[in-house]
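Exam revision sheet. Question 4 asks you to relate a sequence to its structure. Input first:
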Amino acid sequence: MKAFREISDRILSWYARNKRDLPWRSSRNPYFVWVSEVMLQQTQVDTVIPYYNRFLRQFPTIEALAKASLQEVLKAWENMGYYARARHLHAAAQEVVKKMGGKIPNTWDELMALPGIGTYTASAILSFAFDKKFPTVDGNAQRVLCRVYAIQKPIDHS
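Answer key, structure tokens:
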């Protein structure tokens, strides 16, 4: 356990010194967190930044996103690829507005029931927006841990 604490402390210390100033890190708004997490799936951070800013100018609230036509949403997403993300985000926004009064849920089961939300996105929303402890390990964290523990074999193999 001591080794884990040392590694954790070193990683957090490195992050505090080196983190980038990214637009989604300045808010705990669950809608903003959700949009950023969906956009960051399969897309590099530098590509996401202008899309994120434009998307939130066009759809500043979950209600605005839910009211928009799918064509408007897809147009705002244009050239970022993986359009299923945009379709799911739009459908989930409509469900949140219609069934939940526009309030993004703060429970695991409710988030997981929304279209397009998987374990990583649910964990991120709960952690970053609601300050709940739902840790998850993304590909970047897996690569760091492989380096720390000198794991040579690809991590997706048993």
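Marking note for examiners. Residues 2-18 form the longest helix (17 residues).
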